[in-house]
Design a protein that fits this description.
The complex is a heterodimer of chains A (about 120) and B (about 110). With about 120 residues, chain A is mainly β. Chain A is built from no helices and eleven strands. Classes of the chains: A mainly beta (about 120), B mainly beta (about 110).
Chain lengths: ~120, ~110
Amino acid sequence: GAVVSQHPSWVICKSGTSVKIECRSLDFQATTMFWYRQFPKQSLMLMATSNEGSKATYEQGVEKDKFLINHASLTLSTLTVTSAHPEDSSFYICSASLSDRGLGYTFGSGTRLTVV
Amino acid sequence: AQRVTQPEKLLSVFKGAPVELKCNYSYSGSPELFWYVQYSRQRLQLLLRHISRESIKGFTADLNKGETSFHLKKPFAQEEDSAMYYCAPFRGSARQLTFGSGTQLTVLP
C-alpha cells in the first residue's frame, strides 16, 4: 500500500516549451505532497511543499513562476516546468507524507527531464 | 538551522564485514530522523525511523543525543546492500523531509 505514481518517467522537450509532471497517490489521500530535484550524483533538494486546496510553499531560491505546482485534489499534484531551459534538465521526484501513520514519506519513481 | 552531515560520499566493504554509515546532526529541539535507501534503478524507500528502534534488513540506527549522531549499522554486510543511503530529518512544524548528501555503499564479493 501507500504507492505514489509519477508520470511520465522521462520526457524530452524543446527549450521554451512547458512540461507537466504528475504525481498521484494511488491508494491513499495525500493532503501534502513534496517536490524534489536531484542532479546527477547529488542528493535530493526540496523544491516545494504542495498542499491540497492551497498555494504551494516554495523553498528559497526556487522560482514559483517557473515551477508551477497545483494540488487540486487529495490524490494528485502536478509540477509544470514553464519555459524550460537546458539548465532545468534534472531528475524530479515527488513524495507524499504518511506522517499520520508514522511511516515517513513515500516516493514516486521520478521523472527524468531533458531540455534540448 | 537543522542540518545533517554524511561525511562519507563513498564507502566500500567486503561481504560479511560490518558496515557503519555515519550521520551527524545539528539541531535545535528534538530531531526526527530517518534513513532512506535507493537501490539502483529503484525509487527511494524508507529503511529506518529513529522513533521505532526497529531493525530492517539487519540494519539498526540509534539516536545518540550526546554525540548528535544517527549512524546506520549492520554487522554483516551483503552484496544486495549496495545502494545509496540518505540520512533524512524532518524539518520544522511543516514536517518536510530533507536529505543529507548521501553515502554510496558498495559491498564487494
